[in-house]
Design goal:
By secondary structure, the protein is of the alpha+beta class. The chain has one domain. Helices cover 30% and strands 21% of the residues. It has 4 helices and 8 strands, in the order ααββββββαββα. The protein has a 6-stranded antiparallel β-sheet. A hairpin with a 4-residue loop joins strand 5 and strand 6. This is DUF1801 domain-containing protein.
């Protein structure tokens, strides 16, 4: 039986979400990221669950269980209190190869963590976002 997807698109305004981010540095960086992601992807931001600002969508198929499918943003971010979480940058081989040039970051299972935008190369970030935004839809046949 396929698992029920918990994180889905919502009708929450992403700009209001970003404006409410704390501390102030997280809000400022979140606003800057929103501009960068919108410019690079050409997509409007959509809130996914309570805390992810996503761009584009694709249908994923779990490699370990092909019956486990769902939709997910191609790329996105969350201005979390402790750090910025950026999604989709390392999912594709081309992005994973470019990631070491990003600057100062750490990795989680599905995202990259950045303390502040000044720690990373924004031009490399834009390339990584473009790679993620061009992701093919795994569920397409």
């Amino acid at each position: 039986m396929a698992a029920t997807q918990k994180t889905l698109p919502t009708n929450v305004d992403p700009h209001e979400f970003i404006a409410a981010a704390t501390p102030e540095k997280r809000r400022v960086d979140g606003e800057a990221l929103e501009k960068i992601f919108s410019e690079v992807t050409g997509e409007k931001p959509v809130m996914w669950g309570p805390s992810i600002v996503g761009y584009g969508t694709y249908t994923y198929v779990s490699p370990s269980n092909p019956k486990n499918t769902g939709i997910w943003p191609k790329t996105g971010f969350s201005p979390r209190k402790a750090q910025l979480s950026i999604y989709g940058l390392k999912d594709l081989p081309e992005g994973a190869a470019l990631l070491p040039q990003l600057g100062k970051y750490t990795e989680g299972a599905g995202c990259v963590y950045v303390k502040k935008l000044e720690d990373i190369n924004v031009q490399v970030l834009k390339k990584l976002i473009a790679i993620a935004a061009a992701r093919p839809d795994q569920g397409a046949s």
